[in-house]
Design goal:
membrane, 0% strand, single chain, mainly alpha
């Protein structure tokens, strides 16, 4: 690593810490501010925060690596994600913003579900909080793996040292700044990611002499790279498109909708968010494609395809700009880790500690417990991330499926179907999560393949979640008049 690159990265890390200090001084006086920023996010901050927390290190490392290996066959995931994100903005965002505030100012998804269904048994809160903690610990470890790989591939540092540096900076601003720090840093990180995802493929194509020489260099080594169907199967395409189903159940994304300052801002949030996303994912795909041509033209080989962005940034840009581009990877990694840590700590604090251990806890005590919970989740995720052989896209895929199947059907039905009951919601969550875990870990095969290799686990998980929620609602006691009145009030508020 050159001195110039080190200076650029150090400047970025100091900026993140500075934002954390600012947020600590302005918005952590109570648990609502620590967990939701007082519901005062502007449209731009909300949109880029949702996008940056969604598009983690897998966008700059995992997706370009997959396209580098398989060409446009791997880009079906992107198609599914764009459709899913748009549907999430339309079907979930406005209703969740209104309903969570009307439901006694619910601060977390478990809190909302309990209040939405008047669940005095606390079963919904406990099950959903446990799902969040388990799958987010796995999700957070994926981000730490990406951080370790970045420092190892870019600077020659030990993988574990890179992991510690990544986790340490994220912990510093998340522990002290809370939700506002996470959202503001996500906004800055989203801008950095956006510039990097457009600059790297553009520079690669320019260095190769334009798009015609670039495409020739790609097809010379990978003749099928521009085909969407060369190695694809019907089930493979369905599995890739099914990633879009996961959006409805991702707590670290939909919690941004809860924090927007007004439901009237949602159309602006959607336009900014979708514009940012579409251009960013196109850039990620072209990094993988153009990177294939550049590696071929250089006569080089690439040991780890997930480092193609790093290789191009270091080879094609001066050290200061390379430092900025590598900071984009850190930005992607940190934005997601911080969001996941905060949602996990929110569930541990609000949904478990306050609910079962200290109902009368003061605001300052809850903020302290939230910080300790953040630290605990980070430590467990760090231990899991010590396995350097884990693939970023694989870890993200498992956690994404778990959340999508456990929460997606329940969130959609709770916002759009007044007939959903407490028992139906509980059955949907359990069935969705259990199906994903069974698909991943039970010892059986389908046509000689592991189930997850045959079909992405989110597909059977979401089907099971919807079926269990609907059947459970039909066979259980009816919905109380108070719950029905709350649903009707939400719909009236939306006009």
């Amino acid at each position: 690593m050159t001195v110039e690159t080190a200076i650029a990265l150090a400047g970025y890390l100091l900026l993140m810490l500075g934002i954390g200090v600012y947020a600590w001084r302005t918005s952590t006086s109570n648990v609502s501010e620590f967990m939701l920023g007082g519901r005062q996010l502007s449209p731009a901050v909300a949109a880029l925060s949702a996008g940056a927390s969604d598009m983690s290190g897998w966008l700059l490392l995992g997706v370009p690596g997959a396209v580098y290996l398989a060409g446009l066959d791997a880009a079906w995931i992107i198609v599914g994600l764009v459709i899913g994100a748009w549907a999430n903005y339309r079907l979930v965002a406005p209703r969740l913003r209104v309903y969570t505030e009307q439901a006694d100012d619910a601060l977390t998804i478990p809190d909302f579900l309990e209040k939405r269904f008047e669940d005095r048994s606390r079963a919904l809160r406990v099950v959903s909080a446990l799902v969040i903690v388990v799958f987010f610990t796995l999700y957070t470890s994926a981000g730490m793996v990406a951080g370790g790989k970045l420092f190892e591939a870019s600077f020659g540092y030990d993988y574990r040292l890179g992991l510690v540096i990544t986790a340490g900076v994220v912990l510093a601003y998340t522990l002290f700044g809370g939700f506002l720090a996470v959202s503001l840093t996500d906004f800055v990180q989203g801008m950095i990611m956006f510039v990097a995802l457009l600059a790297v493929p553009a520079m690669t194509v320019w260095v190769l002499g334009g798009w015609t020489p670039t495409s020739a260099a790609i097809t010379a080594v990978q003749p099928e790279h521009f085909s969407w169907l060369s190695g694809a199967t019907t089930l493979g395409i369905i599995s890739s498109l099914a990633w879009g189903l996961g959006y409805f159940g991702q707590p670290h994304i939909i919690v941004r909708f809860m924090a927007v300052r007004s439901v009237k801002d949602m159309p602006t949030v959607r336009r900014i968010g979708m514009g940012w996303m579409i251009l960013s994912v196109i850039g990620a795909v072209f990094i993988g494609l153009a990177g294939t041509g550049w590696i071929s033209a250089q006569g080089r080989t690439l040991a780890d395809p997930e480092t193609i962005f790093i290789v191009l940034a270091q080879a094609l840009f001066n050290p200061y700009l390379a430092g900025f581009l590598l900071a984009a990877i850190l930005a992607a990694i940190m934005s997601t880790i911080s969001s996941q840590l905060l949602v996990s700590s929110s569930s541990l604090t609000e949904d478990l500690y306050k609910t079962f251990l200290r109902p009368a806890a003061s605001q300052s005590e809850l903020v302290l417990v939230g910080r300790l919970a953040t630290l605990a989740v980070a430590m467990v995720a760090g231990i899991l991330a010590l396995d350097r052989s884990s693939t970023i896209l694989g870890l993200v895929g498992n956690a994404w499926a778990g959340f999508g199947a456990a929460f997606g059907p329940v969130v959609l039905l709770s916002l759009h179907w007044k007939g959903l009951t407490r028992s139906g919601a509980l059955a949907g969550m359990v069935a969705g999560a259990a199906t994903v875990l069974g698909w991943l870990y039970l010892p059986f095969t389908i046509q000689g393949q592991a189930p997850s290799a045959f079909l992405y686990e989110i597909v059977p998980g979401v089907i099971a979640g919807f079926a269990a929620a609907i059947i459970g609602s039909k066979v259980s006691a009816g919905v109380s008049p108070k719950v029905l009145a709350g649903f009707d009030r939400m719909e009236r508020s939306l006009g």
